[in-house]
Amino acid sequence: MNWLGAVPAWCWWLIALVLVAGGQQYRVVIAQGEAGTARGELADYRLQVSERDRRAAANARTEEQRRQAVADKEGESARQQLELAQGRADTAESAAGGLRSEIDRLRAGHRATCDTITAQQRQAGTSAVVVLGGLLEDADRMAGDLATALERSRIAGLACEAVVDGIESR
User: Fold this and answer.
1) What range does the domain containing 121 cover?
2) What 3-state DSSP class applies to 86?
3) Mean pLDDT across the stretch 130-156?
4) 1 located within any domain
5) pTM of the full predicted structure?
6) Measured between alpha carbons, how far is 80 from 78 in angstroms, rounded to an integer?
7) How many domains does the chain have?
8) Residues 38-83: pLDDT tens digits?
9) In this structure, is residue 76 part of a structural domain?
10) Which of the chain's ends, N or C, has fewer CB atoms near its CB within 10 Å?
11) Phi, psi of 118 (to 5 degrees)
12) Please, which residues have CB within 8 angstroms of residue 77's CB and are 6 or more apart in sequence?
């Protein structure tokens, strides 16, 4: 143990200091390597996330375009059906107009024929024909309006169902 005593104390301190500094430097090098690995993993993760987001956005755009195409197609079909229904309603209205003209002609004929009947009978007969003719006209007009509204409502409902079915069919 003599040789240990020959080394001055400050040298022992210097040796301890070099050993501690070397250990710390080793820990710094290891930490820097781990930090570089973590940065690489983070960059890979960011790349994966951005690629996943890009694919999700592309899929969402594709799905929106598909749904819009279904809605456009069904909307056009509904417009065509409404135009067809409007044509049928116009035809029915013209037929109803002819019927109203016939009712007016019958009323005029009834008035002409009733001129020979006594005043009391003529008044009762005329009022019945006028009332019935008016009721028939009103009922015919109302039936036409209701049929048109019902047809429009049916077409709109069917178009709506078709759009929903087309969107959900995926």
Assistant:
1) 9-168
2) helix
3) 82
4) no
5) 0.53
6) 5
7) 1
8) 999 999 999 999 999 999 999 999 999 988 998 898 889 888 988 8
9) yes
10) N
11) -60, 160
12) 159, 162
